[in-house]
Design brief:
The structure is a homodimer. Helices cover about 75% and strands about 0% of the residues of chain A. Chain A is mainly α. Chain A has one domain: Farnesyl Diphosphate Synthase. A two-stranded antiparallel sheet of chain A has the order 1-2. In chain A, about 50% of the residues are buried. The interface between A and B is large, with 44 and 44 residues.
Chain lengths: ~325, ~325
């Protein structure tokens, strides 16, 4: 089996581990099974497994468990995000808050979070616990900063980057770092793979922002959602910076407007270089990720990380 | 200084520790400060400090930190509960979801949860981590079971007891247990104080249910909230069991009815022994708590636990 096939097998084990461990209480069970019935992209747990694959078969059960933790943490944030954003669709299915209620979304999110911490305690590695509790804290901060930035047209590029890092890059980074810690890798490896992963994560988020402004229908998500929610992301940010007063007014009026004429706005944002500049920004993070990937000495891991960077860069959903 | 005074001083240190550690991000800071500007009863962190006071000055910084963790975990559940129940008042102030939004409540709750886990990792005790991550998971399960039980007039006494244990007794139990673990107490002490605390917690919850059906104005909470939200608690449960068909109909119609004639319903529930039977149940848990308290050999701790049991039993808010 080559390393790609092994990785695929490991991802299957992660899915099995998550699905197997269901509470007996019917309420909890139904919610949990609904959430995990459709598979996400699992890019974060994949990243974690790549990072810990430095010693593939040493500590195998802990490797799978750690990847499951990453997936649980990520899923908990998604479930809470759906409440925060009042989203009705997740991974092609109706969201928990849509089928049940916000209350169910909040509580099953807490359930999944604490389940992740229970698994972490089982692994019993102090550094891993530290990194993941810090990352979880940073993610919630990132989401809060983003919430506060809604409709704030004065937002700076630095603030946008901080949001992308905290809400997305941070868990990518922690996934790589904890995988490396579990593999007892040396300092250089931990540093390179963490930085590579952080850049992939931010790249992934920038691409997510771009996809929201695309007319691509593969995402399974509603289009122009950020704009309609009043969230300023990179395409809007860059376009607004280049806009004249009249264009600024049009852009501001579109923000948070559920009935916005999306194609017209897209045209304007394109004309004002909002898409192009965001693509350039994505390229920067892509390049940085590749630089750090190439510093990883283990050839298998290096190859996988480069491939993951390419996947993030070329994502269409 | 007697042990009561020392405990008071320690509680102050807990409050200071929590308030001192604020994020620099304005959004996070404002929410956090709003939440911690009014003091709760701190019965759980007090319990934790009593339990760890077996060796009062050994590991003092960790004792304070652990009590802060308990308070943070409890506060996180309150903030999420206010979203779940759509409550507008908490500790005499407007709730986060009321001033800001549900989204803010969800995210700052996550922030406080993960902050608690960060502190736990600092303490670095595997058993404590295990107990607290398990307890957090059980609490969310308790809340979910309760949510599912809304308007369910077929609910059993066992289910109600499970809800009281999971949503309230569990954190009381974990507070005592982790305090004892930190103090490196023997197995007997851990067991007795944990069981005592579990009973105090359930007692505390039963009293909470009773206060919701009282005309006492000290609680700072709205009255008949459980009934209006469709939550069946002990007074309703017992009354319903004793009701004839006509009375059953009146009770069912009052459930989840925001415009219910509360005094009329209270009169009916009293007539059907709902209050009396709930008070009897409270007495059972009171007695059990006292039995386990008396098994604690350390006289200071025993005294404090008995006092705490009395406080819970006599609570008027």
């Amino acid at each position: 089996m080559n390393s790609m096939q092994m990785l695929k097998k490991e991802i299957n084990l992660v899915e099995k581990m998550i699905r197997k461990d269901v509470a007996t209480e019917a309420t909890v069970k139904n919610l949990y099974e609904h959430i995990f019935k459709s598979n996400g992209k699992k890019i974060r747990s994949r990243l974690n497994l790549i990072s810990s694959s430095l010693h593939r078969n040493k500590n195998k059960i802990h490797r799978i468990r750690l990847a499951a933790i990453i997936e649980l943490l990520h899923t908990a944030t998604l479930v809470h995000d759906d409440v925060v954003d009042d989203s009705s669709i997740r991974r092609g299915n109706r969201s928990v808050n849509n089928i049940w209620s916000n209350a169910h979304g909040v509580l099953i999110g807490d359930y999944i979070y604490s389940k992740a911490f229970m698994y972490m305690v089982d692994i019993g590695n102090q550094q891993i616990l530290q990194e993941l509790s810090n990352a979880t804290n940073d993610i919630s901060q990132g989401e809060l900063i983003q919430l506060d930035a809604i409709n704030n047209k004065e937002i700076t590029l630095n603030k946008l980057k901080k949001i992308s890092y905290f809400k997305t890059g941070r868990l990518f980074e922690a996934s790589a770092k904890t995988g490396a810690i579990l593999a007892e890798a040396n300092k250089k490896y931990i540093e390179n793979i963490s930085k590579c992963a952080k850049n992939i994560g931010i790249l992934f988020q920038i691409k997510d922002d771009l996809l929201d402004y695309s007319t691509n229908l593969k995402t399974g998500k509603p289009q122009f959602q950020d704009l309609k929610e009043g969230k300023i992301t990179y395409p809007f940010f860059y376009a607004y910076k280049n806009a004249n007063n009249k264009q600024k007014e049009i852009l501001i009026n579109s923000l948070g407007n559920k009935k916005v004429q999306t194609l017209k706005i897209l045209e304007l944002i394109e004309k004002l270089n909002g898409i192009k500049k965001t693509e350039d920004l994505a390229k920067q993070f892509y390049k940085n990720a590749i630089i750090f990937a190439k510093e990883i000495h283990n050839i298998e891991v290096q190859k996988e990380m480069i491939e993951l960077t390419n996947t993030a860069f070329n994502r269409e959903k």
